[in-house]
Amino acid sequence: MDLFVINRYNDKKESDKPHNHLSELLQKIEERKKLREQGALSEGKNFQNSEENNLLFTKSHRKSRKRKKEKINVDDGEQTDNKPEDVSINNTNDDVNAEKISMTEKSEKSINKQLENFMVLGSTNLQKKRQVKRVLPVWLARPQIISSDVSSGPKLKELKGLLDDQLIQLLKANGINKLFPVQEKLINWMQKCSEDRMKGWWVRDTCVSAPTGSGKTLAYVLPIIQYLKNQLTREIRCLIVVPVQELAAQIYKVLTTYSTQSNLKIGLISGASTLEIEQKNLIKTTERGQFISRVDILVATPGRLIDHIERTNGFSLQSLEFLVIDEADRATDWLKFIPEYHHTPPYLTIKNLNSHPIKPAQKLLFSATLSQDPEKLSRLSLFNPILFTSVSGTNQTDEDIDLDNQMNKFIGKYTSPNELIERAYESPPEYKPIVLYELIKQYQKPTDKILIFTNSGESAHRLAILLASFLEQLQINFNVSELSAQLIPKQRAQILEKFRAGESRILVSSDALARGLDIHDIKLVVSYDLPKSVKGYIHRVGRTGRAGVSGTAISILTPNQIVPFNRMLSSAHKVVPTIEHLESVESIAEKINYQSHLDKLKRTIESEQTKELEKIRLGKRRKLNNNKSNNK
User: Fold this and answer.
1) Bridging pattern class, strands 322-326 and 144-146
2) What are the φ/ψ torsions at residue 345 (nearest 5 degrees)?
3) What would the mean pLDDT of 447-473 be, rounded to a whole number?
């Protein structure tokens, strides 16, 4: 017995005989097959743009409803003779159906109109959508312009009134007779900021995007030292945060050099020394148990800075006046550990201006690859920021530049020095060392240094061994060193110092050296491995062609890396160098007996692994013997 029968098409009662749903479903399937054969349901066309589909759908809908009615009448045993009464009823039903179909068409057209901007899966007639124009905040769209020509800066005698005589004398003593454009611009700006600070005003945060080697470090070191040297009490008033130990040590050295004529004390916390030693150099305790800072300016790496904030008693950043973020495109999660009033200043109101004796620290952001993404920059909580950047075409003034309309001329985001020559060579993977060897042979001047980048410490180690083997056989007096995060800080510092002094001519490095380090006389930088991002490429090639001195950067690419390389440089609005090829690579490999060098490399690596395993075993035995002796 059917308890729940619903007759949807002929308004029958529950007691009437139900129609055959299976036969109706089969009939629908057959009808759809016929419609497909007739092309009514054409594949690959955009349904919302097809009026023919709507008409075919309407006709088939009418036929289907009519056939269903006839089928239901037959199944129920009703007469199908066309009597006059039946005709009038059918005509009435047709009018009702036509009205419903008309409403359906209107509904479908309304839906299709709403779906015009949506892509239909499987459709081949895809219309190109209008690109949404980017709109930058005013401070990003209209920056202060810095000339990219490093030779256009002022001479020291023109800085009277901006820098005091002591700093000018120190500059001359270090062989500097004129400043770079970014230094002149920042010194003038920081002088104005100092005047605003003396009036009790909150100072605008400052972002600087300029080429590598353009003198950004000295641009903030000089005005900060000049302002802080007159402070009477010793507190940490300037914090400089950099991403790596080597760059921190370099900036510490610059600060120490230019603060010798003042009472300022410079501190360094980078992990190169133990935490306990750094704590003693940072804080001293009086007889009454009070904590006093030993430093005025502190250079730090992010990890070690967090360690001291959490574990060093008396370590305070409440009195900060300057917060410098060098290489500001790197992660800044450490900012949340800074006192809230400095990393996220409140809104500027009359009440906040008068009620807080300590003003928010001025943030100074520096990078050759400074992000132009407003969302990323908003995480830094910048106060009324201003941007200084380099734009190609020095005939343009600040009023002429609008970066929203002149993005292709903007080189401040990913920028390289004008003195840099960029080249690229294609090589099969197995012959990349041969191509590198031939490039090195072109740079045999006694004062030239060569810096080679790989993507890992292991690759740097293998390549250094192989190059040393090449040069030893050919009696070329080039000492080869390697530098990577696998080495302890002390070893890295020693290797870097030897490279600076010229004791080693070739340095194979992972990306540890890619940011900010200033090493003189590097004439050639080679990207042996393709960098992982365009930022990595900019920082690598920026190790040469610095401070107005020419240099060459070469990328060695395998065939499948050429397209990603071109796409990477094009995304940064850089000119893609012509891909060059080294002729007769196979004959060069045979000439130097390449396979024998590879075999030697294999034996060396295996020997090192054996020694390392033996060292580990020896350590375990000693530990076991110590435990046994303690138990006795």
Assistant:
1) unpaired
2) -65, 150
3) 87
- Return the pLDDT at 237: 95
Alpha helices in 207-263 (DSSP H): 216-228, 245-258
Q: What is the pLDDT of residue 396?
A: 43
Alpha carbons 435 and 455: distance in angstroms, whole number = 18
Query: Torsion over CA of 316, 318, 321 and 323, rounded to 10 degrees?
Result: 60
Q: What spatial distance separates the first Cα and last Cα of the chain, rounded to whole Å?
A: 90
Burial 93-127 (b: 16+ CB within 10 A, else e): eeeeeeeebeeeeeebeeebeeeeeeeeeeeeeee
Contact 142, 406 (CB under 8 A): no
Q: Which of 585, 594, 612 is nearest to 458 (CA)?
A: 612
DSSP state of 118: S
| Dihedral angle of Cα 256, 261, 263, 264, to the nearest 10 degrees | -30
Percent of the chain exceeding pLDDT 70 equals 70
Longest dimension (CA), the chain: 119
| CB neighbour list of residue 192: distance below 8 Å, 6 or more residues apart | none
The DSSP bridge partners found for residue 469 are none
Q: Where are the beta strands (DSSP E) in 403-442?
A: 420-426
Residue 623 has pLDDT above 90, yes or no: no
pLDDT tens digits, one per residue of 280-312: 999 998 888 889 999 999 999 999 999 999 999
What is the rounded CA–CA span in Å between residue 482 and residue 117?
Answer: 56
Gap between the Cα atoms of 205 and 377, Å rounded: 12
232: which 2 tokens? 């009477």
Q: Average pLDDT, stretch 248-256?
A: 92
DSSP 127-152: PPPPPPPP---HHHHSPEEE-S-GGG
- Cα 156 to chain centroid distance, Å, stands at 36
CA atoms within 13 A on the CB side of 474: 21
Count of residues in the chain: 632
In the prediction, which pLDDT does 80 show?
Answer: 42
d(C-alpha 583, C-alpha 578), whole Å: 16
Of residues 147, 134, 122, the one with CA closest to residue 47: 122
49-62 average pLDDT score:
50
* pLDDT per residue as tens digits for the range 180-223: 888 889 999 999 999 988 888 889 999 988 777 778 889 999 99
d(CA 520, CA 498): 13
Estimate the crossing angle of helix 302-311 against helix 275-282, to 10 degrees. Answer: 70
- Going by C-alpha positions, the residue among 283, 377, 395, 394 that lies closest to residue 335 is 377
Q: What is the pTM of this model?
A: 0.67
Sign of the CA dihedral 582, 583, 588, 590?
positive
